[in-house]
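ok so I'm stuck.
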Amino acid sequence: MNNSKLLALSLCVFLFGITQTFSQQSIINVGDNDIKVQKHTIMEQFAPDLVVPLNQRLAMKNQRKEEIKRKLAILDTLDVSNRKRRRLLHDVKFSPFSNRFDKVITVNTVFEDAVENNK
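replied:
not stuck anymore, here's the structure
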């Protein structure tokens, strides 16, 4: 009885440790993988003049990936708390039109002219 409880507890701790390790490694992966865009959309059947062409959609997707990389590079240089950093990472990945990232950047911006005038 006591051995089975100890075995179950050690298994739970082991699984928890594995999930924590994997979650730290996969925060945001913006690699140069093949970008897949649906070639024919359903909307093309009914309103082909409203649909953006395939090459334009690929260009927009590449532009979005570059924007994410730029924002991640900016986020790495900012001095913000871990909680705010996690929220900003979530915004960068899942809600690209959020104003939270822009607000943090403008708050932490120090202009060189202002620094030189204060000396």
